[in-house]
Amino acid sequence: MSGTAPVVGFVGLGSMGSVLAENLVTAGFEVVAHDAAGPARLPEGARWARSCADTARAADTVVLSLPDGEVCREVVQELASARERRVTHVVDTSTVGVSAAGALAGMGLAYVDAPVSGGVAGARMRTLMIMYAGRQEHCAHVEAVLAGLSDRRRLIGDRPGQAQALKLANNFLSATALAATSEAVAFGTAAGLDPAVMVDVLNASSGRSGASTDKFPDEVLTGRYASGFSNTLMAKDVRLYLDEVTRLDGPAVVGAVTADLWSRFAAALPGADFTRVYPFTTGS
Prior knowledge:
The chain is of the alpha/beta class. It is 51% helix and 13% strand. It has helices spanning 15-26, 52-58, 69-81, 98-104, 119-125, 136-141, 143-149, 162-190, 195-202, 210-220, 231-247, 253-268, 277-282, and strands at residues 7-11, 30-34, 47-48, 61-64, 89-92, 110-113, 116-117, 129-133, 152-157. The strands form 2 sheets. The chain has a 6-stranded parallel beta sheet with strand order 3-2-1-4-5-6, with helices on both faces. It has a 3-stranded mixed beta sheet with strand order 7-8-9, sandwiched between helices.
């Protein structure tokens, strides 16, 4: 890596974060990364930082890929309070919720709310959708970093939290479609249908969704159940969605049912791949 390459910090090398950090390395950035679990998932070509504070001293922009808003708050606080910090901007790809994003934007660093959708496979193929929101000058400053993360990006608005709102709506739809498709396929199987034939026909019909075009063919019908996204995180995202809907006094009939299902699934099998909602739903 050339010594003149722009430096980007990265915190959170989980299933998604490790791939996003690798994308930045491939795009020509010098990546300085930290993860609470250690350097096991550090991408080849990246440098290890012993702490978030070390990351703050190494780069003016730091990307976050973390499990929830509380962890993000702790990390942003550490970045902002680091002695001799270089960091001025944070790109947060985590799903933290609307209210949390607003709070994070007030912690002393230029904050770009940038959750992602498309899974680990989408991150590897650079088809991941980055939906981002923030002040115009903040977004402009991190534009090259966003381009390094993925080829698909969409500016949502000028206020942190707006991208979170869209991400929560997206994950609610994803969670609902996967649960509903699981029940429908279970019904068809009980009626004597071949589930693979069912999925093929659904994908040529009005019942298709991301669950039928992606999750069932790739994960459920193959028995792989390795999408890289856990039921614990999906339950958290649906709960955040329902909390925000309630705060805005919106309709939540389907939301309440979906949140209850995912909460029970996560409690029964914490950390399981979220596509295992099919055997959980069917009791198999």
